[in-house]
Specification:
Elements (H helix, E strand, L loop, with lengths): L1 H13 L4 E17 L2 E19 L2 E7 L4 H15 L36 H13 L8 E19 L4 E17 L8 E8 L10 H10 L10 E7 L5 H9 L3 H5 L20 E3 L22 E5 L2 E2 L6 H7 L11 E3 L6 H5 L4 E13 L5 E12 L2 E14 H6 L1 E4 L9 E2 L3 E9 L2
Parallel strand pairs: 7-12, 11-16
Antiparallel strand pairs: 1-2, 1-4, 2-3, 4-5, 5-6, 7-17, 8-9, 8-11, 9-10, 12-13, 13-14, 14-17, 15-17
């Protein structure tokens, strides 16, 4: 496929393109699901294909195909070039500056498990059965128990006319479990747990069903409490829901389209000085690790927000040109929120009266203003202990105000995701309930 990509690049340049970029890719995905005692789902898929970006007389287009025979590709690329000539010119559509491109001198990030093809279907199904059987038929209130397993591979190779050449190969493994129980009246609370890894031998393989059941058990008796302003502890499983709109507001597309509440805020303090957000793309054996972005630009460690001060936007070549700004990187790699000194239990112990949020149920945020309204579930906390399960309550406010009111950042990020965000304690959050 590398040879095919290089041939396609040359063919595009020889037939009317001033520049071009070719990416070939292949991947496999497998997933199974057990519900109670039955295999409920089995899916296996594989794909391979090519994406080609064409720059023709100041015009730009992008096309994809999974038909990779050269005769087919000749017709495909020639047709793409001719079609591109009909498009409007766009002076900002360019390949990345050659000086910013990855030069291929990085060592392996160790994110591919060479043993993935050796793992049998029987071994995968045994995991599902084991995690279902951890809790199946142990509690009469259980309505259902399910467990899911998935794994996959992804390989890409890209080459462009500015001299970029790079390839990636990654694997992933996921295990999940979910239980549902009969509560009071019509209540049917459910809970889940998940684990993931780049490597099979690092994937937790037991206790997932039991953890889902225990999380489900503590939801029984959920209710609302009086509306009010409370401290809010958001655990490391849920905090990404509140960080995601902030990261989205840093995207060059959002800035250029005036669809961001962080326009013109560079080099300004925007949130609490307790918040330092780092983009660290070169962590070995980590989900999201990479040497280059989607343009081929070399990645590097970046302080996105330092002590509450906004240092950068995610700005690719196109939007940087339109905004007359310096490009940075196209998108986040591994986001790490600088940890504090305490874990969730230690922070929880110091809350006199507040709400510990363990999940979000719907809601939305305004990308232009930062105003939000989210449904939550969790626990009322009194004297450092979770005393009452909560549901059907909402939080409202503004994201910048919320993040300005950070009291404490925990030291407990989950390391099996590309967003390594620990538990965070906020002050003065508006809750609506009864």
């Amino acid at each position: 496929m590398k040879e095919t990509a290089q041939w396609a690049l040359k063919y595009a340049l020889d037939n009317g393109c001033s520049d071009a970029r070719v990416t070939v890719y292949s991947g496999t995905d497998t997933s199974f699901e057990y519900r109670d005692t039955q295999l409920d789902k089995l899916e296996q898929s594989s794909e391979n294909g090519m994406n080609i970006q064409l720059f023709v007389e100041g015009r730009y287009s992008s096309y994809s195909t999974n038909r990779l025979e050269k005769k087919e590709l000749e017709k495909f690329i020639s047709s793409g070039i001719e079609t591109t000539r009909y498009l409007a010119k766009d002076e900002f559509r360019q390949l990345a500056d050659p000086n910013r491109l990855y030069k291929g001198n990085g060592k392996s990030l160790d994110i591919y498990d060479e043993n993935i093809e050796k793992i049998s279907v029987d071994d995968k199904l045994a995991l599902l059965k084991e995690n279902v059987n951890e809790v199946y038929d142990t509690d009469k209130r259980l309505i259902s128990v399910s467990a899911g397993y998935s794994d996959g591979t992804s390989r890409t190779y890209a080459v462009d006319s500015h001299g970029f050449e790079g390839e990636t190969a990654t694997t992933y493994y996921n295990m999940t479990a979910e239980t549902a129980m009969r509560g009071k009246g019509d209540a049917r609370p459910a809970a889940h747990w998940h684990e993931s890894s780049v490597f099979w031998n690092q994937l937790p393989k037991s206790g997932i069903g039991q953890t889902a059941y225990e999380r489900n058990l503590r939801k029984l008796g959920q209710q609302k409490i009086q509306s009010g302003v409370y401290p809010m502890l958001v655990d490391n499983l849920s905090i990404a829901r509140l960080l995601s709109p902030l990261v989205s507001a840093l995207q060059g597309s959002a800035i250029q389209q005036k669809n961001s509440f962080l326009i013109d805020r560079l080099s300004q303090k925007i949130i609490s000085d307790k918040i330092t957000l780092i983009d660290d793309p070169h962590i070995l054996q980590a989900r999201g690790a990479r040497w280059f972005d989607g343009e081929g630009v070399a990645t590097r460690k970046l302080d996105v927000i330092a002590d509450g001060l906004l240092n950068m936007y995610y700005m690719d070549t196109y939007y940087a040109g339109k905004l007359e700004m310096e490009p940075t990187i196209q998108s986040p790699s591994i986001l790490t929120l600088k940890p504090g000194d305490k874990n969730r239990e230690q922070i929880l112990a110091n809350i006199d009266r507040g709400i510990w949020v363990t999940g979000f149920n719907g809601g939305n945020s305004n990308s232009t203003t930062g105003d939000f309204s989210f449904g939550i579930e969790g626990f009322l906390v009194e004297n450092g202990k979770a005393v009452k399960p909560l549901n059907e309550m909402n939080i409202t406010g503004n994201l910048l105000t919320l993040w300005q009111n950070v009291v404490e950042v925990g030291n407990d990020p989950r390391l099996n995701t590309s967003w390594r965000i620990p538990t965070v304690l906020f002050d003065k959050v508006n809750f609506s309930g009864k």
